[in-house]
User: Fold this.
Amino acid sequence: MITMEHVCKSYKVAKRKAGIGEVCKSFFRREHEVVHALQDVSFTIGEGEMVGYIGPNGAGKSSTIKILSGILTPDSGSCTVDGRIPWKNRTEHVKNIGVVFGQRSQLWWDIPVIDSFELLKEIYSVSKENYNRKLEELTELLQLSEILKTPTRQLSLGQRMRCEVAASLLHEPKILFLDEPTIGLDAVSKLAVRDFIKKMNREHNTTVILTTHDMQDIEAIAERVILIGKGQILLDGSLQELRTAAGGQDAQESLNLDHVMAALYKKLDIM
Amino acid sequence: MKKYLMFFKLRFATGLQYRMASVTALTTQLIWGIMECLAYKAIAEAMGTGLPMEYSSIVTYVWLKEAFLALFLTWTGDKDIFSLIQNGGVSYELCRPVSVYTMWFSRIVGGRGAEALLRCVPVLICAFLLPGTLRMGLPVSIEAFVLFLVTLVLAVGVAVALCMFVNMLCFFTISPQGWRMVLLGSADFFMGNVIPLPFFPERFRKVVEWLPFPYMQNVPFRVYSGDLPVAELGPVMAKQALWLVILVAAGLFTWKQVEKKIVVQGG
Assistant:
């Protein structure tokens, strides 16, 4: 379903120190640094799998998601999703995927959420029956009925996130990329979103790739975990294998998963 | 087609969402229009017969300009697309199964069209009801009116295509300020938004006519009042179409370059 082979991606980042003298100097001569976001990343994900993609800040999680969703072009390496190269057959490719970027919004700021949904319906050419059925399902599962008529700008972060998730699923995608979809959600909403993702997977065999810093998300959803650090895949296996890799006393079940992760990050020296 | 009409609908809804803004904008436009008409009246009286446009044509030009301000407005419009580029919101845009160029083009047309539709009706009603020399005239002929509509559509096409080209350039500089100041600022002047083009000195105008700017609002607004005779319109419309093609091609070409090495700002 999804294969990534030897994918590399680097960014050029302008850097300078603080201070007005440095500002003036950098106006004439910029110092750039090449950041290797991804270095030789390879993995395969089968249809219907639910994969947690984790790693510390700046590890390359979002870059991977952006390459998989056809937004970024990698420097080298190959990648196919459902038989297509994402950045080459972009319009065909994105018909079948749903993406949630937790830190961005795809809803129109000034107008009620439902208007944005209607626009998405047209953009993805979803038929009226399918749209109504899906909207009903989403409204019920994510408890949207109260907030659909509210302008986006007046929603709280959690309410907005639930709408964002719904917006990405209106066209019933086969593959779902979730980039930190549970930021700012309260306990009830978090559970609702998690249950919902699991239900999607069970009923429609949707492939899900999820990045998050909330280890409970991973515990609840992911059957398989891929750990990335400094642009390289360091571990690929079940959550239990991850605990074992963290080693020593940290492997005890009783210990908080966050501590396990912290220990693992330190051990692998990827902080 | 329906998906592109949706943008129009959405922007129309957005425009209506803020009622007070519409009312204040209308007031500003009316006062500004009346002031402009009075200023030209003073010029007309001082210059006598030497005016490059008839006074009634100028009044009509001013009111059309105010009524359709949103269509050609270069210095405020389309902020949302600039912010998409600056803040990385473009990543969602790239996840849609449509051409980004077409989507943004229709989004801008929809935005401007919807706003113009909201604004033009009250402005035109007021302009037709104003007393004496401030009143806007009817089109010189039915033929002129039809051609006014045709050239208006072409003019909007040229204006939006230019705007799209500037949008694409912003991918390279990130801050839109520079491009906007230079290109859109000069557009404002050279398309006759400050003073109508016939007021430009002859030689200067000849040079300006080689640029895309005179093929925006200048054409339809002068066709309406008969200042630009219907008989002379053939080559003008051909040039409008030509600029539309050139600017769309330039925008598409730049987009192809952008798409290959796009960088999403803000992680």
